[in-house]
Amino acid sequence: MQFQKEVEIRAPREKVWKFIWDVDRFIACVPGCKEAKTLEEGKRYSAIMTEKVGPFKVEFPTTIEVLERDELTHIKAQAAGADNKIGSRMKIDLDVNLRAENDNTILGFVAGVDILGKLAALGHGIIKRKADQVLDEFARSVKQKLEGDA
Amino acid sequence: MLGRFRLEEPEKLAEASELLGRYGESAKIYAGGTELLLAMKEGLVRYERLINVKKLGLNQIGSENGALKIGALCTHRELENSPLLQQRLPAFANLEHHVANVRVRQAGTLGGNLCFAEPHADPGTLLIALEAKMIAARGESTRAISAEAFFVDAFETSLAADELLTEIHVPAPDSERKCAYLKFGYLERPSVGVGIALSLRDGGVSDVRIAVGCAGPAPRRVPEAEALLSGKSKDEATRNLGQAGAIAGRASEAISDLHGAQDYKEHIVGVLLKRAFQSAVS
Amino acid sequence: MALAARRQDRQTIPVSFTLNGRQQEIDVEPHELLLDVVRDRLGLTGAKRSCDVEVCGACTLLVDGRPVSACTTLAFEVRGRSVLTIEGLAENGKLHPLQEAFIEHGGFQCGFCTPGMILAAKALLDENPDPSEAELKHFMHGNLCRCTGYKKIIESIMAAAKKMRA
Q1: Residue predicted with more confidence, A107 or B175
Q2: Which residues from A are below 8 Å from B119, CB to CB?
Q3: Total domains in the fold of chain C
Q4: H helix intervals, chain B
Q5: Of C21, C56, C88, the domain-final residue
Q6: Closest chain C residue to B51 measured between Cα atoms?
Q7: Bridge partners, B144 (sequence order)
Q8: What's residue A108's pLDDT?
Q9: What pLDDT score was predicted for residue B100?
């Protein structure tokens, strides 16, 4: 599943970039994400991603690897997690792009999400909608935190 | 194999409410089990307690001032075979006749179907078109939730965690009120469902209610499509069916999945709306 | 000691029911499925676990004459009821007309779906002794067969119905 989102943030690029690497505050913007940890500064992080669809709950302990880092412009990362209680695995390929527009920053995400195992059988369509919602909320949360700080 | 759980068998509604309140998310209402047990078998959900509600006597079908009162614990089989429903709401009895297969109809209940809120289900869609009300009980108090407001999202209703669905009320259908439900799909569960209700009077169509289901996460009423048909002559309404169908298709929030691509489902919504309308007015 | 104490804590439900015409008394735990009890504890392996999601009908049993998916029925639900498995259909060694018809008309090949098929057909004919083909197909819709293409199954059931009406 592919997702794309762009959000315009009334903040300079340096501020947005700094925010991204402030792991605790950044992860706090992902709905259902908790216990963010830095395993290796700038390289590896962990978090627990939780989500709920009706009575169904998932909890993915996730490891995030930063694969590429272009100062102030681009991050490439990969996240992988497994919910062994349900028997499902998740993999996300994430591209984060920043570009300046006047005094603002355009923050863009491109995410390739793979859900494997029982959860995928549950309903590809439901998962897609949920993931879309999560990404939406995430982008909004980031924007709010950064603009609110001014 | 299912995970181990404790069985509670309340014999009074107040008991059931109390159990729900006490055990919260570690307990679940168990009726026919046709959806719940599947999810439990797959390990997608786990409960410490199942609350068997089949001893609460909620499986009556009756009529009061012409309005139909259907107990939430009525099985699909009881509904398809009910002489009262066959006479007063043949479209609904026919819908129940085509739910799943004969074994699921034997065990599965209408209430369970509505509360589990699986997107690919039939009854909710027609109940919205019929302007039904869901009666929810918590302890001694009850409230009525319109079918339209009952379905929030996939697997999510507007019932509170400690509320029980006890009855479904369908307002008195009069002789001028026509309704129809059509569904489409080749998989085990329906892929697209459209329900329509309208009044036919002197060649004019009024008070149209349209609902679409199965294609998206929850069944939805489509007032914008209704407006194209309501208050029109039969001929004019028929001419507007294409546009109404397109609107209804988009309103269905169709998701591309194994049941079909989004645009395919939207198209089928339009086809079914046309046919359901024609079936209702003929 | 702790294990035994935990076991004592387990809830069991006494289930008194008739199985193929004979009275049975067993204790089941709430989570036990009817299919497992019938196959593993009672040794009646005619009913099969196939899809495990109530779709295929290979696990069909008759409870109070009505077809259920034993794979998704909790065992305690048969308390006070009568259960019929394929093993209970023949009486004193004489095959039921449905069983005879399936043999005579080639209504099975591998036989995997057959116990469920025949029990479902029995429920149909007990309810509707003279079904139209459309009614038959609607009722039997939930019993799947991968071998026969269904034509011979329909013929078998119709033939049995005719014999049973005579």
Answers
A1: A107
A2: 123, 125-126
A3: 2
A4: 13-23, 36-41, 76-80, 83-88, 90-97, 102-107, 110-116, 123-129, 147-150, 223-229, 234-239, 241-251, 262-281
A5: C88
A6: C30
A7: B135
A8: 93
A9: 96
**Greater pLDDT, A3 or B198:** B198
% of chain C exceeding 90 in pLDDT: 94
Burial class (CB in 10 A: 0-12, 13-18, 19+), B280: buried
C35 and C103, same domain (yes or no)? no
Q: What is the pLDDT of residue A23?
A: 83
Q: Do chains C and B touch (3 or more CB pairs under 8 A)?
A: yes
Residue C78 DSSP label: G
Query: Cβ of B217: how many Cβ atoms within 10 Å?
Result: 25
User: Of C88, C105, C127, which one is at a domain's C-terminal end?
Assistant: C88
**Distance, first Cα to last Cα, chain B:** 51
Tell me what pLDDT residue A150 has.
47
CA dist., res. B38 & res. B188, Å (int): 14
Taken in order of first residue, the domains within chain B and their CATH numbers are: 6-52 (3.30.43.10), 61-170 (3.30.465.10), 177-281 (3.30.390.50)
* pLDDT for position A98: 94
CB B97: neighbour CB atoms within 10 A? Answer: 17
* Gap from B164 CA to chain A (nearest CA, Å): 15
In this prediction, residue A125 carries a pLDDT of: 76
For residue C2, what pLDDT band results from cuts at 50, 70 and 90? low
pTM as predicted: 0.92
Domain ranges, residue C44: 2-88
d(CA B99, CA C102): 28
The residues of chain B scoring below 50 in pLDDT are none
Are B44 and A86 in contact (CB < 8 Å)? yes
Count of structural domains, chain A: 1
pLDDT beyond 50 at C130: yes
What pLDDT score was predicted for residue A27? 83
Residues C109 and C33 in one domain: no
Residue A137, domain extent: 2-148
**How far is residue C29 from each of residues A71, C77, C133, measured CA to CA in Å?**
62, 11, 42
| Helices and strands in chain A, H and E counts | 4, 7
Q: Do B155 and A54 touch (CB under 8 A)?
A: yes
ipTM of the complex: 0.95
Does C121 share its domain with C157?
yes
Residues 19-58 of B with CB under 8 A from A: 28, 39, 42-46
